[in-house]
Design brief:
The protein is α/β, with parallel strands linked by helices. The protein has 5 domains: 3-144, Four Helix Bundle (Hemerythrin (Met), subunit A), CATH 1.20.120; 194-297; 300-481, Histidine kinase-like ATPase, C-terminal domain (Heat Shock Protein 90, 2-Layer Sandwich), CATH 3.30.565.10; 486-634, OB fold (Dihydrolipoamide Acetyltransferase, E2P) (Beta Barrel), CATH 2.40.50.180; 640-761, 3-Layer(aba) Sandwich (Rossmann fold), CATH 3.40.50. Helix content is 45%, strand content 18%. Strands 10-14-15-13-12-11 form a 6-stranded mixed β-sheet. A 5-stranded mixed β-sheet has the order 2-4-5-7-6. It has a 5-stranded mixed β-sheet with strand order 16-8-9-18-17. α4 (63-80) runs parallel beside α6. The longest helix has 49 residues, at 248-296. The chain is flat and about 105 Å long. The N and C termini lie far apart (75 Å).
Length: 766
């Protein structure tokens, strides 16, 4: 909140701000006190928070808040002085009191009073004196938890209250050393997100502007060399003149010119030294300003966990379970926007771990486990990404129960379901609407499950995967960018312009030779680590002109998105860069295949590509049959054009045999799996010869040849039919349809096929 907003804010708004801060202190402190009721620093912090809220409520005129905070303070003072040992029932009442105080900042109606306040005050008063507490009405938590499924508020009526023992005189808790006020704790100011974004934008532009000093210094260096050359040329011209050819006046002018050039050079050297010093210092300050502006957007990962421990505690009591949340790496710095969008998926995963994973205390003890379950969250940085691991020590996933759920819900047949592997079964948990619960409860069974988590993580340009060990728990691995304001990217050149690909989607980079590319089912592929990877020209997706072919191979970026892997052909690798994301003007709407813009170090604008959008563009190109070849330019480097042959056959054995024979002879070969696939390939690319079978699914060879002869562009294309049918009428059908050559598979040998190809189109090279 800005100073002007602070001046204009009402007292109630100010109370709400203080209530948000103090109830957070109460929630975290009470969680510690539930495990260790004598923890002195937590008792002190909670007592001071309640005391502060009492004073704030009195100033604002919230009498109900004064009563609640006062009785909470009394209870905590009794515990501080050793006259009261806090039990789970005390913690329940104190937490409900914190919820009420937070809710008083936004009453439903002016002057409205929660009817449960008097009951809570009476209950806390009795508990503070060690007397049996009257039964409590459930109090709705006023801090909603943002998550995909409906949040629940645990009610006291669903939890059996423990027997309250008579008060026992306890020794006073030893005060723990605490940090002096104002020391060891950073002062926090409220600054609007818009101002932070503006500051980051200015600092990034300043950094880019200072990068332009280097080319200016290089220009001055060239000017210095030119001046030195001019001075030497003047001296050489003077020496070349014969003696007596220059009078005294001309000699004086030459001397004056030499002196002026020398002074200019000395002045230039001084200015260059000053410019270098200014450029270095200014660049360092601009970098520091940018780093500070970027750091101002970062928050510790612990901020996203505020309230999660409380949520787990309340939910575990309502489910009759015991659980403890352990966090590692809570100080890891993450962009505030990422943290805000991580809260919902993390909440859902925590609730899922408690509801589906952690067993009841009785069952855990019977299995030899501690009665209290544990959920671990581990956060760490790696390669510009935030890696999160959420692990529970519960029962894991019952794979057989999951298998039956998949079959019973019609996701797989009985036979297919029995053959599913563990990874394949776990993948069903991420499907929309899939749930293993038959009944809807407040926590589960609504069909809003891990698919919501996966969707939200993917919106952050991240990913999520699951592992489990039956009887020993489950683990979720999340990977998201540290910041959405800065993206580590590979900058490439396409159509003479720079584009950036986020590193999070890049599997690796490579260079291909023309002979590494094969045509398979109407698409170009290459072999990479045991699988065929489809090739796509970035110039076609981005509708840019083709650049000059590279003389040291075809640059390819392997892009992975979810389960898809494809090779994106570019013109040149520029290098890895960390780019400040600059959102596109909202008036442009969604620009196809582009997510944002940025500036390179030299001020060159660059567009950051949207990988998911590019996948949709690729699917459209495939559906239309207009996907172009990516190695056309590379073939031109060989100096002679190779003849291209399309082999169409539904038999993999025959198809590969013919392809290898033609490749060994020097022809460029593409393959298609049936007549329809072959027809799409013929319309999309140029071929010098068509070799086709007759009997094929979707479209047979006779239909294919007929279509070729009816097409004005293809009617002169030589066609060879290779078929097992060797009867005269079959041969006549093929030739009548328009084939130029008919060869029977039963009788042909290697040389027969190659000789026929040479007869039809000549040698492989023109």
């Amino acid at each position: 909140m800005t100073p002007d907003q602070m001046r204009d804010a009402s007292l109630l708004e100010l109370f709400k701000l203080e209530a948000e801060a103090q109830t957070q202190v109460l929630n975290s402190g009470l969680m510690v006190l539930e495990r260790d009721p004598r923890h002195a620093s937590s008792l002190e912090a909670c007592m001071r928070a309640a005391h502060s809220l009492k004073g704030a409520a009195r100033i604002v005129g919230l009498d109900a808040g004064v009563k609640v905070a006062h009785v909470m303070e009394d209870c905590l003072v009794e515990a501080q002085e050793g006259r009261l040992l806090l039990s789970p029932e005390h913690i329940d009442a104190l937490l409900q009191g914190a919820d009420i105080l937070l809710g008083l900042g936004t009453p439903l109606q002016p002057g409205a009073v929660d009817p449960g306040i008097d009951a809570l005050v009476a209950r806390l008063g009795a508990l503070a004196r060690g007397l049996p507490a009257p039964s409590a009405a459930p109090v709705q938590a006023s801090t909603p938890v943002a998550e995909p499924a409906a949040a629940i508020a645990p009610s006291e009526s669903s939890v059996k209250a423990p027997v309250v023992e008579p008060p026992v005189a306890l020794p006073p808790a030893k005060p723990e050393p605490s940090e002096p006020a104002g020391e060891g704790r950073a002062r926090i100011l409220r600054v609007s997100a818009e101002r932070l974004d503006h500051l980051l934008d200015i600092s990034s532009k300043s950094l880019v502007e200072f990068q332009r000093i280097k080319p200016l210094g290089d220009s001055l260096q060239r000017l210095k060399r030119l001046q030195a050359t001019a001075r030497r040329a003047l001296d050489m011209a003077r020496e070349a003149l014969p003696k007596g050819a220059v009078d005294a006046q001309a000699e004086a002018m030459l001397q004056e010119t030499r002196q002026a050039l020398g002074e200019c050079q000395q002045l230039l050297v001084q200015h260059m030294t000053d410019l270098d010093d200014f450029g270095w210092q200014g660049g360092q300050r601009a970098q520091s300003l940018y780093d500070a502006a970027l750091a101002s957007r970062m928050r510790p990962f612990a901020d996203v966990l505020a309230g999660q421990e409380r949520m787990l505690r309340d939910l575990s009591r309502s489910l009759g379970k015991q659980v403890r949340l352990v966090v590692e790496g809570e100080s890891s710095q993450v962009d505030r926007d990422v943290l805000e969008r991580l809260e919902a998926p993390l909440t859902h995963l925590l609730r899922n771990a408690l509801d589906h994973g952690i067993e009841t205390p009785e069952r855990r003890l019977a299995q030899g486990k501690p009665a209290e379950g544990q959920i671990l969250i581990r956060a760490r940085h790696h390669a510009g990404m935030l890696l999160l691991e959420l692990r529970d020590d519960g029962g894991g996933v019952d794979l057989e129960k999951l298998r039956q759920a998949v079959i019973s819900r019609g996701f797989a047949t009985e036979q297919t379901g029995q053959q599913l592997t563990e990874d394949e079964l776990l993948a069903f948990l991420f499907l929309p609407g899939f749930s293993m619960r038959d009944q809807v409860t407040e926590v589960s069974g609504r069909g809003v499950g891990l698919d919501a988590v996966q969707h939200m993580v993917r919106q952050l340009r991240g990913g999520v995967r699951m592992q489990q060990r039956h009887g020993k728990g489950s683990t979720f691995h999340l990977e998201v960018p540290l910041t959405l304001s800065v993206v580590r990217s590979l900058v490439v050149e396409v159509g003479g312009e720079a584009y950036a690909l986020p590193l999070a989607h890049i599997e690796r980079m490579t260079r291909l030779q023309a002979e590494d590319i094969v045509q398979l089912e109407g698409r170009q592929h290459f072999w990479s680590e045991g699988q065929h990877v489809g090739l796509i020209a970035a110039s076609q997706i981005l509708q840019r002109p083709e650049g000059k072919p590279s003389d040291n191979g075809i640059p390819v970026v392997l892009i992975r998105d979810r389960d898809s892997l494809f090779g994106l052909v570019v013109e040149r690798f520029i290098g890895e860069r960390t780019l400040v994301v600059m959102p596109l003007d909202a008036r442009l709407g969604k620009v196809q295949d582009v997510s944002a813009g940025a500036l390179l170090d030299d001020g060159t604008p660059v567009l950051i590509l949207d990988v998911e959008d590019m996948l949709h563009s690729v699917a459209k190109l495939l559906g239309s049959g207009r996907l172009e070849r990516v190695d056309r330019n590379a073939r031109q480097l060989s100096g002679s054009k190779r003849k291209r042959v399309l082999v169409v056959d539904d038999s993999l054995t025959v198809r590969e045999l013919e392809r290898k024979l033609l490749l060994s002879r020097g022809y460029d070969v593409a393959v298609a799996v049936d007549g329809m696939d072959g027809w799409n390939a013929l319309r999309a690319e140029h071929f010098d010869l068509l070799i086709t079978d007759i009997d094929m699914p979707r479209m047979d060879g006779i239909e294919l040849v007929t279509l070729v002869r009816r097409d004005s562009r293809l009617q002169s294309l030589p066609v060879m039919v290779v078929s097992y049918k060797d009867r005269e009428e079959d041969r006549r059908r093929g030739l009548d349809a328009g084939a130029d050559y008919y060869l029977a598979k039963a009788s042909f040998h290697d040389e027969a096929l190659l000789d026929a190809v040479v007869d039809l189109v000549g040698e492989p090279h023109e």
